[in-house]
Amino acid sequence: MPFVHNVDAAPAYWWLDILWVVLVKGEDTGGRYSLMHETLPKGSGAPPHKHTWSDEHFFMLEGEITFLVGEEIKVGRAGEFVWVPRNTRHAFRVDSETAVFLNGYTPAGLELAVMECAMPAPTRTIPPKGATPPPNMSDEQYRRYGMDNLPGPNPLAPVAAPDGGSAHARAE
Questions:
Q1: With b meaning 16 or more CB within 10 Å and e meaning fewer, what string describes 54-68?
Q2: How far, rounded to the nearest angstrom, does the alpha carbon of residue 109 sit from its chain's CA centroid?
Q3: DSSP 45-69
Q4: Rounded to two decimals, what is the model's pTM?
Q5: Alpha-carbon separation of residue 74 from 38, 120, 149, 159, 169 (angstroms)
Q6: In tens digits, what is the pLDDT along the chain, a chain of 172 residues?
């Protein structure tokens, strides 16, 4: 059935220090597609993982994010589209003060993980640091949502800077 959903009225959640708005659920599309509008603070992101049965895409609306896709590291900015085929190792890290993107899955499914693990957002803002549930998904949940965390180093993790602070590995 046709539908129209609005980012200001769709269900919103706080999880992993991110505001997630579920614009399109799998139940809206017969399981074929889902789409989330995400607002993220600097430094947030996801470590290397893959989706075993969904292709994923990001359409950058605001900010700058460093993406790892396969073995390539690329920077995404407003107006750019990033495609991640299923079973492809990927990760990302927000480099600007904030970032906003549309995040879609074909077929749908990851939105169910957000709806299960996140807390309903009391406001449509980035949650205060540490206010959201921890990312403690069980192995069964990872399988249920078609995800695999990948062991090994995260090339997007902060590295120690020469002055004792932290810096991010960067490449374009």
A1: bbbbbbbeebbbbbb
A2: 13
A3: EEEEEEESS-EEEEEEEESEEEEEE
A4: 0.87
A5: 19, 32, 20, 18, 12
A6: 899 999 999 999 999 899 999 999 999 999 999 999 999 999 999 889 999 999 999 999 999 999 999 999 999 999 999 999 999 999 999 999 999 999 999 999 999 999 998 999 999 999 998 887 666 777 788 888 888 878 778 888 875 544 554 444 433 3
